[in-house]
Amino acid sequence: LRTIGEVEVGEDQISAVNLRFSGWVERIRVDKTGDPVEKGQTLFEIYSPELVAAQQEFLLALRTQGAASNLARSARRKFDLWGLAERDVASIASSGKVRRTFPIRSPRSGFALHKNVVEGARVEAGQDLYSVGDLSHIWVTAEVYEFDAPWVEVGQPAQMELSYEEGKVLEGKVAYIYPTLNEVSRTL
């Protein structure tokens, strides 16, 4: 069967980067859509009064009651709930100093597929700021006419040729067949 398809980033290869607290973006480190990023790389630095106050509480608990105290564990747990990197929290504990800005790191390696933030911007909790996607495995959504559908099975080998690279054939396999038919185009 020959058909057309659309190349997409796999849904399982994309991570949204957002915050669980509000603040102001102080410095952008990954400033363009399409920039490569590594897991754990700083995307931007943020100033948040909530984060500064949480650091002060944590350090006060460490100084007065020690790391094993319920108060220190509770204060540290707040950083976990906000999704902050363990190494950054450990650096606060070891230095004993409050950081004015805090790095926000990439959850995966790949590329910045979408960037919705600029330096100086106020960002709210829950606002999607970046999408990072791994392009090492992609999806191709192919449209097959309903009368050809019985000849397509999961696991079946598939080949793809891109219009801008004629003659170069890429190998893959059918990973999924949608259970519904497009009523307008009569394709699956």
Can you tell me about this structure?
The structure is a single chain. The chain is α+β, with helices and mostly antiparallel strands and 188 residues long. The chain is built from three helices and twelve strands; from the N terminus they run E-E-E-E-E-H-H-H-E-E-E-E-E-E-E. Strand 11 (157-161) and strand 12 (169-173) form a beta hairpin. Helix 1 (49-65) packs antiparallel against helix 2 (70-81). The model has no long low-confidence stretch (mean pLDDT 94).
Note the main attributes of this structure.
alpha+beta; 188 residues; 4-stranded antiparallel sheet
- Overall spatial form: elongated
Treating each run of at least 4 consecutive H or I residues as one helix, how many helices?
A: 3
Reading the helices and strands in chain order gives EEEEEHHHEEEEEEE
Q: What does the largest sheet look like?
A: 4 strands, antiparallel
**Strand order in space, largest sheet:** 2-9-7-4
Approximately what portion of the residues adopt beta-strand conformation? 25-35%
Distance between the termini: 13 Å
| Helical content band | 10-25%
Global mean pLDDT: 94
Which stretches of 5+ consecutive residues score pLDDT under 50? none
What is the strand tally?
Answer: 12
Q: SS-based structural class?
A: alpha+beta
Q: Rg to the nearest angstrom?
A: 23 Å
